[in-house]
Automatic annotation (TrEMBL), chains A, B:
It comes from the Bacteria. SUPFAM superfamilies: Winged helix' DNA-binding domain. PANTHER family: TRANSCRIPTION REGULATOR, PADR-LIKE FAMILY (PTHR43252:SF2), TRANSCRIPTIONAL REGULATOR YQJI (PTHR43252). Residues 91-169 form the Transcription regulator PadR C-terminal domain. Residues 7-78 form the Transcription regulator PadR N-terminal domain. Pfam families: PadR, Vir_act_alpha_C. This is Transcriptional regulator PadR-like family protein.
Amino acid sequence: MSLRHAVLGLIAELEGASGYDLLKVFDVSLANVWTATQSQIYGELGRLADDGLIRVAAEGPRGRKEYAITDAGRAEMRRWLTETRPRYLRRDEPMLRVFFFGQAGAATAAALLDAESDALAGMLDELVELDERIPWKEDDLSFYGGLAIEYGKRFMEMRRDWARWARDEVAARDAGD
Amino acid sequence: MSLRHAVLGLIAELEGASGYDLLKVFDVSLANVWTATQSQIYGELGRLADDGLIRVAAEGPRGRKEYAITDAGRAEMRRWLTETRPRYLRRDEPMLRVFFFGQAGAATAAALLDAESDALAGMLDELVELDERIPWKEDDLSFYGGLAIEYGKRFMEMRRDWARWARDEVAARDAGD
DNA sequence: GGTCTCATGTAACTCGTTACATGATTAA
DNA sequence: TTAATCATGTAACGAGTTACATGAGACC
């Protein structure tokens, strides 16, 4: 139940946030780490409130609901961080396709790998820009969010370099043996 | 519908494979890229056969069904590789937790990061061993599978190094300012 | 007055996980 | 003979996606 803890953890850090606020956080910094849709977030906020882990602390204009974490919620967050082990489930569509590039022919495979390294270079640029735009290290969320952004940058770099290397391997195999 | 194409692609490469055979491929080489459970695989094989993309080519002992791809299946595979763009959906539980390590205190955060770099070093060892055990480059699946394994190794290395770096950042922040 | 952003919610569907259930064949 | 491996299938549930639906407030 990772989404549950993502939402709960954000409410803990961002007291007074609404579902709409969380949605923006998911789109920007958390996107590198966990994606969520609008309907998921609102649904989970409702369930967390029903279970007493968060509560509606205030209501604003346009039906806005501002949430705050409860003691039970803080305890659950600590339990999740310290008493559960994360799962390393990999599900990576671009990399899955690589597995089958042989079925499209070597020339097409090389072109697809080129397109991927370009896409990755673009995503890396976006992250670097984001990293420079946000004032890190001010508070805990920023500090740990900064660690996650650094991870995102390393990830994109590694992957871009891999795509370039793989492209050369495919080209060499096509030309040579 | 990535699982569908993962199963379809494997049947294309491994003519005569059964659901049970695919299950092993998913557990070993494909695990770095796409995970699937037994019930998903059998379900998808049934649906692919219903849709005419694969067919039961032979039946073996113990109810074994050996599948073969059809022309419609090969066309669908080509279409998927060349006419669709992959999605970069990241959903990474260990990294999500990092986002909230501040809520457990700096000492606990450092310990959690230590545990993670150890786990990653172990997974890297497993991949290196796998890489040495399997005879790559013999056929297309092995060649492209080898590219994916190289990716897996780079991924683990990057991640292990990141965890060590992050641990030092947390320790420095805790000691210093 | 019109458009943009803020703001929430639900319904239908697909995908993924866990657990159960069953049985044949092989090798020690 | 008994344990391991091979082999398939389904049922219930939980998680994630897409689309629809609605409306209030802010800005120009």
